[in-house]
Amino acid sequence: xxxxxxxxxxxxxxxxxxxxxxxxxxxxxxxxxxxxxxxxxxxxxxxxxxxxxxxxxxxxxxxxxxxxxxxxxxxxxxxxxxxxxxxxxxxxxxxxxxxxxxxxxxxxxxxxxxxxxx
Length: 118
Description:
Blueprint: E1 5-7, E2 10-12, H1 14-26, E3 31-34, H2 39-47, E4 57-62, E5 65-75, H3 80-98, E6 102-114
Parallel strand pairs: 5-6
Antiparallel strand pairs: 1-2, 3-5, 4-5
Helix pairs in contact: 1-3
């Protein structure tokens, strides 16, 4: 397990924050997945020295606030700026409700695009 994130007098495992944010962001219309879920890429990184993909959600403490980095794959046809705004809103809302700390920033990275099957 990774080193705990200490904020507002409590320690939280990064995996806990990842789970909370992932569940909320997956509910945003237009988000295909949080993080890259490419089986081939994951298998190659397991059996070679290739680096594994970036974590889907990262949290960093700045003062008494969290900075979140969220990596998503989106469905084609949804405007990126609107999706990023919706992801930010969902992440801030769930952290406030579940953890009770303020989020100062949510950086959204669109790491993939899913096209509809024709």
